[in-house]
Amino acid sequence: MIKSGRKWSNWSGIVKARPRTVIYPSHVEEVVEAVKQCCREGRSLRVLGSGHSFTAIAASNDVLLSLDRMQGILEVNNEALTATVWAGTKLKTLGELLHAEGLAQENLGDIDVQSIAGAISTGTHGTGLQFGNIATQVVGITVVTGTGDVLDCTERSHPDLFKMLQISLGALGVIVKVTLRLRRSYKLSYESSRVPLTACLEQLSSLASEHRNFELYWFPYAEPCQLKIMNETEEPITERKISSYMSDVILENGVFGMLSSMCRMVPRLSASVSRLCAAVVPTSRKIEQSHRIYATKRLVRFNEMEYNLPVEAMEVVIREMRDRMAQEKYNVHFPVECRFAKGDNIWLSPAYGRDSAYIAVHMYRGMPHEKYFADMERIFLKYGGRPHWGKLHTLKAEQLRAAYPKWDSFNEMREKLDPNGIFLSPYLRSVFIH
Ligand SMILES: Cc1cc2nc3c(=O)[nH]c(=O)nc-3n(C[C@H](O)[C@H](O)[C@H](O)COP(=O)(O)OP(=O)(O)OC[C@H]3O[C@@H](n4cnc5c(N)ncnc54)[C@H](O)[C@@H]3O)c2cc1C
Fold first, then answer.
1. Which among 116, 107, 95 has a CA at the least distance from the CA of 49?
2. Domain limits at 48?
3. C-alpha 241 to ligand 1 mean position (Å)
4. Is the distance from the beta carbon of residue 119 to the nearest atom of ligand 1 less than 6 Å?
5. What tens digit of pLDDT does each residue of 1-14 get?
6. What is the pLDDT of residue 252?
7. How many domains does the chain have?
8. Which of 2, 8, 11, 53 to mutate to test the pocket of ligand 1 (most atoms within 8 A of CB)?
9. What is the value of pTM for the model shown?
10. Which numbered atom of ligand 1 lies nearest the CA of 109?
11. Both 48 and 93 in a single domain?
């Protein structure tokens, strides 16, 4: 629990803040009161999910409001296959609660510690060309606006506002409840394999279209890369032995953590460590309930930049990134993560209007990422990239405005819903104003 006046930092440690007041409401009325008080006293407020964004998007030096006490399922509709949940519910808890009702989310990202509101507010996504980001699973939102009004929104009741609230960067109000479109519980088979990057690039579009969930990890300066493939199955769940837990979680994270510390101490080892990691990519297969298989434990901390690109750009961008890495010889040993997502019509969604490729670059915490990320960002922008809202980027309001056809309409509504600018932190000012 964060205490008022104490230092707070995000998961990677790159963002630090000292909120003057931290509030943990248990009811919608307490959220309304907190917002009204901020208006009266001219204070600013950010809502914190799990603090897993890499930018300062959730940071506050004034009022920080956490919905950790507003978690759980409020209502399940087993015929419509929907559930209304408190917005502070963490994805891992949500998966288990839904499974107990025989329900599941159709797709998820690679960790499950985020809050549902935090995940949707930044456009968090998994991989798979049939699936939009998690916000596309939302069919209803209850929000406390910057004037303390409580609005229940669906696509039918508020067609425009709903499309803004699905991915709102926490700029339109405090989301208190979310209704999700679900499906019956299902199982997935997960396969990890090692293949040469060149061969993988040649089959990229078939791999992405033939498998439910396809993801590619390539290690800088190495030819072997890791393919992660998931498909739906009726096969029985793989028995989890303690030895496989040791290898998955403790060895993978422990050894990688040690190698990462070595790279931080002696950065010129990075390329060799990257090649070593590529050479020992695990080849394995397992079957599990969907909500238990998407996420992996991330014990080695890093910083990350991720861009959304038109789907056709995936291959050419990877090739250009690889050439630039060979020229510049950055000290980096973390893999590049490549995923796919279906396009959508959410106003500030990075996947707005286009089926998408997502490419993410990572750097071990404490190692300089600036030059590497800046050079990769230039390549992403050349191909029409839009940044992930929860990950590092350098774009400001004018560049973002050019990337989003509905930008001005969103901004106008933001000013109406938050006339006193209580949700406008310095970070959001740089995004929306200058
Ligand atoms: C190890 C790691 C792995 C990740 N993997 C993925 C991945 O696979 N796919 C992907 O797309 N992203 C991924 N991310 C990014 C992450 O999903 C997003 O940054 C997400 O927003 C974090 O959720 P959170 O609950 O921590 O939100 P926070 O970071 O705390 O907040 C994010 C934003 O949501 C707003 N917000 C939170 N709750 C509310 C609310 N109730 N009402 C209004 N606004 C609210 C905050 O104000 C802020 O603007 C990963 C991040 C990490 C650190």
1. 116
2. 8-66
3. 32
4. yes
5. 888 989 999 999 99
6. 73
7. 2
8. 53
9. 0.97
10. 8
11. no
